[in-house]
Amino acid sequence: MSPQSHSHSLDTVKHAEQTPETDLPWKELGLKEDEYARIRDILGRRPTGAELAMYSVMWSEHCSYKSSKVHLRQFGEKAPTEGPGAEAMLVGIGEQAGVVDVGQGYAVTFKVESHNHPSYVEPYQGAATGIGGIVRDIIAMGARPVAVMDPLRFGAADHPDTKRVLPGVVAGIGGYGNCLGLPNIGGEVVFDACYQGNPLVNALCVGVMKHEDIHLAKAAGTGNKVILYGARTGGDGIGGASILASETFDDEKPSKRPAVQVGDPFQEKLLIECTLEAFHADLVVGIQDLGAAGLSCATSELASNGSGGMRVELDDVPLRDSSLSPEEILMSESQERMCAVVEPDKVDRFLQICEKWEVTATVVGEVTDGDRLEIFWHGEKIVDVDPRTVAHEGPVYERPYARPDWQDELQADDPAQLPRPANGEELRAATLALVASPNQAAKSWITDQYDRYVLGDTVLAQPEDSGMIRIDPETGLGVAVSTDGNGRYAKLDPYEGARLALAESYRNVAATGARPLAVTDCLNFGSPEDPAAMWQFAEACRGLADACKELGTPVTGGNVSLYNQTGEAAIHPTPVVGVLGVIDDVARRTPMAFRDEGHLIYLLGDTREEFGGSAWSQVAHGHLGGRPPRVDLERERLLAEILIAASRDGMADAAHDVSDGGVVQALAESCLKGGKGARIVVPDGLDPFVFLFSESQGRALVAIPRSEEVRFTDMCAARGMPAARIGVVDGDALEVQGQFSLPLEELRRHHEATIPELFG
Amino acid sequence: MTTRIGVVTFPGSLDDSDARRAIRIAGAEPVALWHREKDLRKQQVDAVVLPGGFSYGDYLRCGAIARFSPIMESVVEQAKGGMPVLGICNGFQILCETHLLPGALTRNDHLHFLCRDQRLRVENDTTAWTSDYERGQEIVVPLKNGEGGYVADERTLDELEGEGRVAFRYLGGNPNGSRRDIAGITNEAGNVVGLMPHPEHAVEALTGPTTDGLGFFTSALKKLVAS
Amino acid sequence: MARVVVDVMLKPEILDPQGQAVQRALPRLGFEGISDVRQGKRFELEVEGPVDRDALARIHELAETFLANTVIEDFTVRVEDADGNERPAGTGTAAASEGAVA
Amino acid sequence: MARVVVDVMLKPEILDPQGQAVQRALPRLGFEGISDVRQGKRFELEVEGPVDRDALARIHELAETFLANTVIEDFTVRVEDADGNERPAGTGTAAASEGAVA
Ligand SMILES: Nc1ncnc2c1ncn2[C@@H]1O[C@H](COP(=O)(O)OP(=O)(O)O)[C@@H](O)[C@H]1O
Ligand SMILES: [Mg+2]
Q1: From the CB of residue A322, how many other CB atoms can be counted at a distance below 10 Å?
Q2: Is A260 within 8 Å of A121 (Cβ atoms)?
Q3: What residues in B contact C14, CB-CB < 8 Å?
Q4: Residue C84: inside a domain
Q5: DSSP E strand stretches across chain D
Q6: Which of A487, A635, A715, B79 has the smallest number of Cβ neighbours within 10 A?
């Protein structure tokens, strides 16, 4: 069928029925032959162009999770069924974001998402719209967003392209988040050559609401109106639909559609205020944000989650670009838009609130009593589908996976053979090299570009172990969140790597005194079509699900990002895990800084010789091999209990988790944060190098006032937690007795100069 | 009668709730004011705070669009009549755009948004918003902005210095290229004060670096109670 | 429909960190022979109806009261012809802001 | 010394929140009859030596690689004459970025 005969004519449902033989560019839209056959099967005819547009975006990997679904199921199947985490779950996986009960009538929703590929193409806008997208997910649950975090991965710190990507990403996250008025309370910055052509920009948002304010995306109630509000729809992110529009149905129009979306944080700020006001006035039945797949996604999901059908008049969608075709309107990913379902007699009040906030709002459809999603354009029906088949019944793949042949060799390459610092002088040099290395260096040049004060409830923010937000100013109820994920560990063993990510994040939350409750995760992996990457993914899911069960912290939601690779080379498997914890009174939080001379420094946990994937092996030798540190989740749980009790009972003045870089890195950070030195003694029986640089898990440093020492050590002994007194807060140097002494000023210079020198 | 201090919310205001909290902690009654309000007198407020944020996204120029909000006419009129007005960050930018205060705020010289705890010296302890401080006193409050470089022509700068209208100066390094390290200024009458740093974020030990910012609000309260 | 362009530049005596950052980067990028860079804003206004003296006067006022902050910025109003040439139709500085419409 | 101007504007299909904010404010300020506003950047470069074909080619390259982000922006290079008129000396879009120097 030649394109001309269709040019300027509308591919209506009727027309599709009459022209069964018409070829559609399903392949160009990313569908497989059998997927297209299934669509024809479902419809009992060929799809219209608009229907094809909807199916193709909704059945994409990004929207349908077709390769990951079978593995993600474990998060539900293995979810803990008892304990505080299980009891706190209010809304689980499947909604825009999970919701947990944090007590006192409050609920918290949080989720992490990726915006990796757009951020490589256009770092500023890619990262900015990443923040925008995750914030809309949180608003759509009925919550007020209260904080954001940004786990980031970049290529080598000294690579010229990193100088393009990092400053742009950071400025974009700051530019958008600061303008929205959300404090940035934490994140990660990791450099590794494996991310050179594929940086990871993950974004997390936390929101708070009262239980009764939880809203779900569904379109119940025949006759209820569907209101589209926020930005006008433009031609953003519709590469695929342009193919459809320009090649098949309207060959003459220019198919110049932007691949990059530009964010408008001011518009989003108005969306937040306007949505929350409408919620509080009880004007909303269901609500959905428009993210990937835009209106296709919003209408089909709202309709399929509800009881009835939906009828949409596409002509009523406010456009930024009047040349858009209906297919393009359905696929547009223009930012800062939301869709609400509102009872007819409340529509006027809803529109008034939008007017107050100067937000464009239009009724574009209504809920019908059928079970079809019908979309009209110029009075003709161009979509007539069962919305469930679009939104929920996409393809599911059992992709083949296989342990890569190089895995054994990698694990056999034990770091035990690497030359080590042999005396005090060399340990000193190794310490300076470590704290100055890009991954271990201070990130304040980056995080100072983020507002951490706005909203006035930030109790802890970077560089603390976790960010902490006060929820209720009367009672002091608060939540803490940390995100972690070590791709080097996961490369050595993806199953253990995922468990390690959870362990670290859990520990970081507990270090501040909060009780870990629930998990969100962003799984960043290579191509699912590569059996090796698929194996990494499967292993990581299995590991995370097992670990969540063991620790009693359910996964409440998250995001999968596949195809993170440059050519054949995949990134390190990078599961990023966010843990949310609760603290009854934020006044009891434990910060990381050594503040008072004379406080005793204890190391909790056992130190073994564990250097696989360690920061030291990377910094000193550029080495990655062996096995990652052992995970003992029972020990993590015990450690958390100790840290929480120490906070609650006022026994610890400071606590800091020990992770990459080992004890010496943690000591340096606590000293520099408080501007106080420390005198450290290597515990008997431990090799100084192993003591300082090993990355054994399940450990933390605490600073204990002398008056609390007996109480604290008794508690540790009673619970069976190894606690070694390793020194005292004192002076203005980090001194490891018998080995070396490093004046804080010198330490600070090395730790703080690296990032500004690279990017300033 | 309690003292009522209004806080204007423009579309894109962000630190309005913080300003209201600071007013409450200081012992006055915060009154939320919407930017479309035409007549301030109806709200019976004794003073007004223009809070921080990104009014209208700070598109065009910081404060340029907010300046034309309906409420601003009334704010200008009342300010000229002696009502205490405090502009924080975006509020300072708005005060400059309305010419209640001289000069303008430009892009930070290092071109980045910067959030840090900032040391300041109080240079004028006689304004409506600074009387609870002592001249020469050092305080630490958060600073967070992308366009905080204060500029004015030399004559204006000399005038400000000569008349003691530089209210705050940066210490410990100029964070944004402000001329003569100026962090905040006042009008001739001392009732209108604008500054880039955020005193409202330094009113509680738990969430701020210090509680040094409280003095702004207690100063206004005392003055209003006295008058 | 005609296009009127308003250019807004920082006054010469006001520090222009953005322009300076560009200029400082030039040698690194291998560009020589550019002695100064200033960065400003360009507004393209699509005007309905004729761009006559009256319309230009109104745009001039718009520029002066809104698009530019004349405490620190100067502006120029230009009319674009069909060839993409832009001819000045008035500039504004604090001093010469009145009656500058050509 | 001659002045070359590089104008950088968001591509027409890209959202321009700044221009929109300005446009939305106009009616409130009492300005009518302006149907669209786009906001972009203007760079004024002071060039040492003659602004010949070669110099313009280099400036074109500078604009393309540095001043504009051609993923989302188009640019125009103009030469300013003594009367303040600016004549185009090349534009760049993703499509037409090569050899566009007049
Ligand atoms: N991109 C970022 N945005 C915000 N905070 C960050 C970012 N990167 C690092 N941080 C913060 O810096 C601190 C140190 O980070 P990291 O060394 O990764 O902590 P940990 O090892 O304890 O997880 C943490 O408080 C973390 O939240
Ligand atoms: Mg930590």
Answers
A1: 5
A2: yes
A3: 106, 151
A4: yes
A5: 2-10, 34-47, 73-80, 86-92
A6: A715
CA of A727 to the centre of ligand 2 (A): 20
| Contact at CB, C78 and D67, closer than 8 angstroms | no
Secondary structure percentages of chain B, helix, strand, coil, to 5: 30, 25, 45
Q: Does the model's ipTM exceed the 0.85 cut?
A: yes
Inform me whether the C-beta atom of residue B64 falls under 8 Å from chain A C-beta atoms.
no
A621, containing H or E segment: helix A615-621
* Domain of residue D70, residue span: 2-91
Return the amino acid letter for A389. Answer: T
Query: Per the domain annotation, does D96 fall within a domain?
Result: no
Per-residue model confidence as pLDDT tens digits over A377-415 = 999 999 999 999 999 889 999 999 999 999 999 999 999
The verdict on whether B110 is a catalytic residue reads no
SS3 A94: coil
Smallest Cβ–Cβ distance between D42 and the set C42, C66, C88 belongs to: C42
| B153 contact C CB<8A | yes
The contacts of residue A495 (CB under 8 Å, 6+ apart) are A539, A540, A542, A543
Q: What are the CA-CA distances from residue B31 to residues A104, A255, A593, B48, B78 (Å)?
A: 28, 52, 38, 9, 16
Q: Which residues pair with A366 in a beta bridge?
A: A225, A311
Nearest to A148 by CA among A158, A161, A157, A138: A138
Residues 143-182 on B with a CB inside 8 Å of A are 144, 146
**Can you tell me the distance from the alpha carbon of B141 to that of B212, in angstroms, rounded to the nearest whole number?**
7
Residues A500, A629 contacting (CB under 8 angstroms)? yes
Whether residue D101 lies inside any domain: the answer is no
Q: Which of D10, D15, D26, D28 to mutate to test the interface with B (most CBs of B within 10 A)?
A: D28
User: Does residue A722 contact residue A602 with C-beta atoms inside 8 Å?
Assistant: no
Residues of chain D contacting B57 with CB distance shorter than 8 Å: 17-18, 21
Count of structural domains within chain C: 1
CA distance C64 to A372: 56
- If you take atom 19 of ligand 1, which residue's CA is the nearest one? A465
Q: Each residue of A585-605: pLDDT tens digit? A: 999 999 999 999 999 999 999
SS3 A61: helix
What are the two backbone dihedrals, phi and then psi, of residue C53, each rounded to the nearest 5 degrees? Answer: -55, -40
Alpha-carbon distance C77 to nearest alpha carbon in chain B (angstroms): 17
Q: Which ligand is nearest to the CA of A461?
A: 1
SS3 A463: coil
pTM for this predicted structure: 0.93
- What backbone phi and psi angles, to 5 degrees, belong to D73? -125, 150
Residues with CB under 6 A from ligand 1: A 150, 152, 184, 186-189, 443, 446-447, 462-465, 484, 508, 657, 659-660
Q: Report chain B residues whose CB lies below 8 A from the CB of D22.
A: 59-60, 65
In a domain, D99, yes or no: no
Non-local (6+) Cβ contacts of A718 within 8 A are none
CATH number, domain of C66, equals 3.30.1280.10
Q: Is B154 assigned a catalytic role? A: no
Token pair 């960043």: residue? A524
Residues in chain D with CB shorter than 8 Å from the CB of A334 are 15
A424 annotated ligand binder: no
Residue-range domains of chain B with CATH = 4-226 (3.40.50.880)
Residues in chain A: 760
- Nearest-CA residue for ligand 1 atom 12 is A463
Q: Which domains does chain A have, with CATH numbers?
A: 63-391 (3.90.650.10)
Inter-residue contact A568 to A510 (CB < 8 Å)? no
**Is residue A184 within 8 Å of residue A150, measured between CB atoms?**
yes
Whose alpha carbon is nearest atom 18 of ligand 1? A188
Q: What is the pLDDT of residues C40-96, one digit of tens each?
A: 999 999 999 888 898 999 999 999 999 999 999 999 999 987 676 777 776 665 333
